[in-house]
Amino acid sequence: MDSRGSGLREIKKQMTRESIAEAAFKLVIDKGLDHVTIEEIAQEAFISPRTVSNYFSCKEEAVVAAGSHDWPTIIENFERRPADEDPLHALSEIFVDYANTQTRQQSRLRAQKLELTETYPSLRRFQIAEYDQFEDELRTVIAARTGTQVDTDMYPSLAAAAAVSVIKSATNVWVRSGADPEQLAALFAEAFAQLSAGLPSPTRRRPEHSPKPVTLAARSDAS
Amino acid sequence: MDSRGSGLREIKKQMTRESIAEAAFKLVIDKGLDHVTIEEIAQEAFISPRTVSNYFSCKEEAVVAAGSHDWPTIIENFERRPADEDPLHALSEIFVDYANTQTRQQSRLRAQKLELTETYPSLRRFQIAEYDQFEDELRTVIAARTGTQVDTDMYPSLAAAAAVSVIKSATNVWVRSGADPEQLAALFAEAFAQLSAGLPSPTRRRPEHSPKPVTLAARSDAS
DNA sequence: CGGCAATTTGCGCAACAGGCAAACTTCTGT
DNA sequence: ACAGAAGTTTGCCTGTTGCGCAAATTGCCG
Predict the structure, then answer these.
(1) What CATH number does the domain located at A8-63 have?
(2) Which among A29, A129, A199, B182 counts the fewest CB atoms within 10 Å?
(3) Which of A86, A153, A198 comes nearest B195 by C-beta?
């Protein structure tokens, strides 16, 4: 009955899943996407080819599953928040906290993955799909929490999309500017700040691009 | 040299492309995604199977290519705008105009397509990818126009993502509330308004769920 | 008209998705 | 603790697919 069920079985499944994903990722990094077959992945993960197909619908899905963000935890943290808090405010703090718990290991992996998704359009599709699914779950909980209807009010969709776009945008800029683990949190905060200010055009905030990369050191204070 | 090349050839290519997409779409509507083969699509479009593969990497891509939004025109309209205008303000007006030019035919097609993408996850991936590509182009022009760097400033990414999320959210709500061609433009405007207000939580705008759902989604006969 | 470049097509092949059923592992009730 | 239920892995199989290659076809331009 319970999908979060029965100890050992679930653990093993999770382990195989990760095992396959890591094998796929490693192989694609080494040999390039189209020189990797399902059979190789299976071999690398000590498992039969047929089982790989049981877990993922294709190589691409497996590759992208490696080193993903911990979406369930983020959702849980969100639901733990006081019910009357502004959703975007809550998410801002959650993301900042999340960024601060990321290890160097994870950062490096993330950067590698971004490189892969920029090289292979087919991988990109699956990467985007992952974000999209998270956005969907987020939309649902936001709707529940604000008492709005997903079918008739755009707010849940817009808010969820905004939050996800913060992750994407901040992560991108962060990777391109050296992927310093310290700075991701600041970028999240900055992005949410821009959002709640209504995304004013920067031509009115800053005439030219600044020599120092970004205003990262600035702690976001309430405007 | 010129990608917008030499008359007849380009026209024919465009026609075959559409022809394939429409064939694929029609067949999938009729028989369901996994009972349609490339060979059937080819037959329906009066060309060889091999040629289908020349245009699309798989069925899914072909299906989704049918009845897409006219992204190039939207981009062009954006570039035609006065250079110092706030990007989101410009996009708001452009989308509203765009919505007003949509025919009933197109509306119906769009609704059907949404149904398909909700039924088949594999189609959804390609649908999302299409939006994502537009977002990418939008990001580039927004960056150019505001004099920001895509690599160091999050604004172009956030603004582009916001605009695209407006299209997605508004279209969704619009389809779910009957897909009345008159109302899409209003939804666009409303969504942009929420954005530039910083996406305030509706719990502070409206204490409880209201009898009249949303100003715009409500089927008011005051047309 | 004639040669050039782009496009279509047929052929072939390795790879793949996914149904099916048998072997095997974990779980549950007693 | 044990037997049967429930879930997972695996091998086998078949129709489908993606794509490289080269030949035939078609539009293009002097």
Answers:
(1) 1.10.10.60
(2) B182
(3) A198
Distance B50 CA to D23 C1' (A): 14
Query: Going by C-beta distance under 8 Å and a sequence separation of 6 or more, which residues neighbour residue B105?
Result: none
Q: Give the Cα separation of A197 and B154 in Å (integer).
A: 14
Flag residues of chain B having pLDDT under 70: 1-6, 204-223
Dist CA B140 CA B75 (whole Å) = 10
Q: Provide the CATH number for the domain formed by B71-197 in this structure.
A: 1.10.357.10
Which residue in B149, B162, B177 is closest to A199 by CB distance? B162
pLDDT tens string A114-150 = 999 999 999 999 999 999 999 999 999 999 999 999 9
In this structure, how many other beta carbons lie within 10 angstroms of the beta carbon of residue A117?
Answer: 18
Asked if A154 lies within 8 A of B204 by C-beta distance, the reply is no
For residue B132, which amino acid is it?
Answer: D
CATH of B9-63, one of 1.10.10.60, 3.30.70.670, 1.10.260.40, 3.40.50.300: 1.10.10.60
DSSP tag of B4: S
Residue B69: DSSP 8-state: -
pLDDT tens digits, B50-66: 999 999 999 999 999 99
pLDDT of residue A78: 98
Tokens 């407006």 sit on residue:
B166
A residues 52..81 contacting B (CB < 8 A): 57
